[in-house]
UniProtKB/TrEMBL annotation:
GO cellular component labels: endoplasmic reticulum; SNARE complex
Family listed: Belongs to the syntaxin family.
Keyword Nucleotidyltransferase listed: no
Any one GO BP annotation for this protein: protein transport
Topology of this chain in the membrane: Single-pass type IV membrane protein
Top-level taxon: Eukaryota
Protein name (Swiss-Prot/TrEMBL): SNARE-complex protein Syntaxin-18 N-terminal domain-containing protein
Organism from which the protein derives: Fusarium oxysporum f. sp. vasinfectum 25433
First-listed, main subcellular location of the protein, grouped into a coarse class: membrane
Localization in the cell: Membrane
Coiled-coil intervals, chain numbering: none
Presence of keyword 4Fe-4S: no
Gene3D superfamilies referenced in this protein's UniProt entry, alphabetically: 1.20.5.110
Keywords: Coiled coil, Membrane, Protein transport, Transmembrane, Transmembrane helix, Transport
């Protein structure tokens, strides 16, 4: 689930990058051609941007900052979910280990209690009697001294159940450890993405302030340029008058 959410956020980020590049290309295509010629003809500075051009870029930049902030918020919330999930998995793993320890202690106490049910005489005889070779049965196995067939089957069944339980518990522990490793890797990736996106947002904000200052300075330069005489303007008017005179000359003569 967390990986799917991270993939969804990454898809949104890629779509936003594509939209931003497309919008920048449209703005350059719209204001990059005739805008420079118009600024030159009006006596302005060719490298300066028009007010509409600067406003369009500022609007696109503000929209990009807003959407980057949303993506940063989503990644931060997902990182918090990863941290919560990691804490839950660690708690679950601790409880499973404690459960196994307590069950092992109860099993040891049960076995000790079962052996305590043997007759005292058998235990005294085993302690006081001299050591002697243990006789073997006809099939080559050691006989079960003081244990009935039912007790032997009960011990075997208990051992099998205990082994199955420990195997299941071990599988759960391995699964939990694998999940913890995956969550830790995803959390590290999210933290790195958050740091990168925070730096990108700060850079966009700084660029926005710089653009605002540049637009203000450009407007002042445009006002100064319109107030002084422009050679380009006189050249344009002279060329237009000459062309009109030549056309009229051809029509008359």
């Amino acid at each position: 689930m967390i990986r799917e959410l991270n993939a969804g956020i990454r898809a949104l980020d890629e779509a936003e990058q594509l939209r931003r590049e497309t919008e920048s290309a449209i703005i350059r295509k719209k204001y990059g051609g005739l805008g420079a010629f118009g600024a030159w003809a009006s006596g302005g500075i060719i490298s300066s941007k028009t007010e509409e051009h600067a406003e369009a870029e500022a609007k696109a930049r503000d929209l990009g900052i807003h959407r980057d902030s949303i993506l940063w918020f989503l990644r931060q919330r997902l990182e918090l979910c990863c941290r919560t999930q990691q804490e839950m998995m660690e708690t679950r793993l601790k409880r499973e280990l404690e459960k196994n320890r307590s069950m092992l202690s109860r099993s040891g106490a049960t076995i000790a209690g079962d052996f305590a049910e043997f007759p005292p005489s058998a235990r005294r005889n085993s302690l006081t009697a001299p050591a002697a070779p243990i006789p073997m049965s006809e099939d080559g196995q050691f006989p079960s001294q003081g244990l009935t067939e039912e007790q032997i089957q009960m011990f075997e069944q208990g051992n099998q159940d205990m082994m199955k339980h420990f195997e299941n518990s071990l599988d759960k522990v391995r699964t939990a450890e694998k999940s913890l490793l995956e969550i830790a890797e995803l959390q590290s990736l999210l933290v790195n993405n958050l740091a990168t996106q925070s730096a990108h947002i700060d850079q966009l904000v700084a660029d926005s302030f710089a653009t605002t200052e540049n637009v203000g300075g450009g407007n002042k330069e445009l006002k100064k340029a319109t107030q002084r005489t422009s050679p380009a303007k006189y050249t344009f008017f002279a060329a237009s008058g000459l062309c009109a005179f030549l056309v009229l000359w051809d029509l008359v003569f």
